[in-house]
Amino acid sequence: MTESFELSKIGLEWGYQGEYGPLNWCSKFPHAAGNAQSPIDIQDKDAVFDQNLTKKPLKFFYDAQNFTTIVNTGSSFKISGLESANSGVVGGAVQDEHKFLQFHMHWGKDGSTGSEHLINGKCFAGELHFVNWNRKKYSNDSDAISTNGHDGLVVLGVLVNVGEHNSEFDKILNCIDDILLRDGAASIKQSLDVKKLFPSDVTSYWTYDGSLTTPPCTQCVKWIVFRECITLSDAQLAKLRQMYICKREDQCCEMFRIKDNFRPVCDLNGRKILKSFN
């Protein structure tokens, strides 16, 4: 029985391996064949320092009400919160103020792989994506996601290395047993201090125009990928791999664990990569 048949059987249109994997996403999601897709391999030697990024530094703020609910999407966990929560991303590469939408993560089957973006060809153990939508140009997040003008979303990418235990991330992991199955949802039990999930230096980053890294892969994103990583322990990363892509316990098996949930890098196709540091 092929994985493609199994994915269809459990109600999924796309996945990360085989017939339903990234190489074939464009058959159902035409935007995935665009020439400004993400992720990419960021070659620092080819990135251009842009002094304008430092004149009005990147700033972002999130209050705790942005992080109240966690859901198993079938491809990752997703954390979101109240519509009325206070948030904002502006400055640096971000022209219009953006409002927080959700954050999620990508990881591998072990600590040697898992990030979507590569830096100078190097893969990391994981990558957090903080997704924010342009509330100045668009009336809602759906419209912002539908655009192909790279002005709908700003995604802050935080690379993850295997290393020291991150106690703040435990507040997420404490909910995993409640969302092992796809569409499982739970409340975040402890208030999340999201600053502890960002690197200490948020002034140094690369930025480029790209896309969503999952279907529909619209080219709506201005990417910001921080140069400095955060760390999670091996045990913390292993906990994420307990989640399933299936909805029912009787469908669950090892092949349906969420792991290697990252898209391979895409061609740069002449796009410029800017950086905020020399």
UniProtKB/TrEMBL annotation:
Its EC number is 4.2.1.1. GO terms for molecular function: carbonate dehydratase activity; zinc ion binding. SMART domains: Carb_anhydrase. Its cofactor is Zn(2+). InterPro entries: CA_dom (IPR001148), CA_dom_sf (IPR036398), Carbonic_anhydrase_a-class (IPR023561), Carbonic_anhydrase_a-class_CS (IPR018338). Keywords: Extracellular matrix, Lyase, Metal-binding, Secreted, Zinc. It comes from the Eukaryota. It is an enzyme of class 4 (lyase). It is found in: Secreted, Extracellular space, Extracellular matrix. Residues 12-277 form the Alpha-carbonic anhydrase domain. The keyword Protein transport does not apply. Belongs to the alpha-carbonic anhydrase family. Reversible hydration of carbon dioxide. This is Carbonic anhydrase. The lineage of its organism: Eukaryota, Metazoa, Spiralia, Gnathifera, Rotifera.
